[in-house]
Amino acid sequence: MTASFDARIEKLVYGGDGLAHHEGRTVFVPYVMPGELVRVIPVSAKKKLVRGKPQQILEASANRVHHECQLFADCGGCHYQHIPYEAQLRYKTEILRETLARIGKIGWAGEIRAHASQPFGYRNRAQWAARCVGDAIRPVIGYFQAASSVLVAADKCPILAPTVETTLTAISDALRHSRLPHEIRAIECFADATGDAVLLNVVVAKRNTSAAQLASQLRENVPGLSSLLVQDEKTGDFELNGPGFIHYAAAGARYRVGHMSFFQVNRFLVDELAAAVVGEETGGLALDMFAGVGLFSKPLAKKYERVVAVEGDVATSRDLDANLKDSPSARPRHSEAAEFLTRWKEKPDLVVLDPPRAGLTPPIIERLRSLGPTRITYLSCDPATLARDLSALMAAGTSAERTYAIQHIYLYDIFPQTYHIEALVRLERLD
Is residue 87 part of a domain? Predict the structure, then answer.
């Protein structure tokens, strides 16, 4: 490994790093700002690429701010706490535009409207690990360092919603004083919109304690615990104590959300995001692909004569079924997206896409172009796969295929203080 060197940061790139150049090699280094002169310690090096960490900020940006959390840059959860929030939004917008151009060859010159969140206290869901650190005989709870199995103990976290942070503090104190069993290895916490109900997923190293016993111990320490799912780390077996879900009020409706179901994590933006995805248009038929628990399906059912909500995950589909019972125009379908679209023949007025980070598969894109919906609304959590998929949807096709043009791009800052980007793109069919 080469010795430390000085480099001028040129820009931020997706992933949280700043980009620089040194002696013909591209340098990536985290926790910096554009324009700063940084002394870099190499962590890994290849022929034309160096990944490093900042040893010293030699010339700091005039805009740099003091980070809110004492564990910043140690726990690996946040990347931008040294950057003013308004600047975070600006940098994310620039990264999104650049990614669309570089990967998708999409030269979008229009506005990318950024929708801000409260910068702290926004997360209604968090995951923590529990381990014995060093020579300690009692486990501590916290977060792993970035790209590491090193646990950083934490009993507070400023990006968490108050109820979730209170849960972290309570569990940390209970483990410290042996009020909870030491076999706990991981905990996932999800809280409802009011903070009155808490759902926990707990992984244990061995089943010395039943779910009922563990639930009793946790309820003595965690206010509002409504449902507990315990998983044996070795066997993978599950044991449930409680109803298996909580209810979350959002977008003018009430949603059942189970232990294994996804729900938007930003409590400040969930209503605004749902309204934007649904839009102002009305029509006959809307397909809600990757529908989850139906966050978008229920409000879509108020605007469209028919809504078909497609979800492939078995556990999530149970929540979707329950949530659409009072929406007679919405029909849930348990199916993988590609399989469903292969069988579907009717042209929709609108298709809503909210795929996982991997984006769309080629068969899905091909089938969408063949069906030719009038509008497509694509919500993406990964700029690179978004750029790839938009490029494919916008490419010139055969006479039997439809191609699309971008009408609007929005950035919803679901994850302040991190590099993550949530983009909403509206596409219109070109006839």
Answer: no
Count the domains in the chain. Answer: 3
Q: What is the DSSP string of 127-170?
A: EEEEE--TT-SS-EEEEEPTTS--EEE-S--TTB-HHHHHHHHH
CATH number at residue 300: 3.40.50.150
Q: Kindly state whether residue 276 falls inside one of the protein's structural domains.
A: yes
pLDDT tens for 266-284 read 999 999 999 999 999 999 9
Q: Contact, 380 vs 348, CB < 8 A? A: no
Give DSSP secondary structure letters for 206-267. Answer: S-SS-HHHHHHHHHTTSTTEEEEEEEETTT--EEEES-SEEEEEETTEEEEEETT-----BT
Claim to verify: residue 294 and residue 410 sit in the same structural domain: yes
Task: In whole angstroms, give the CA distance from residue 322 to residue 372.
Answer: 30
Token output for 34: 């554009």
- Whether 41 maps to a domain, the answer reads yes
Same domain, 197 and 159: yes
**Tens-place pLDDT, residues 35-49:** 999 999 999 988 899
Sign of CA dihedral 406, 409, 414, 416: positive
Task: Express each pLDDT in 197-213 by its tens digit.
Answer: 999 999 998 767 788 89
Q: 10 Å Cβ neighbour count for 395?
A: 13
Alpha helices in 309-403 (DSSP H): 314-323, 337-343, 362-371, 383-394
Choose among 243, 270, 288: nearest CA to 378. 288
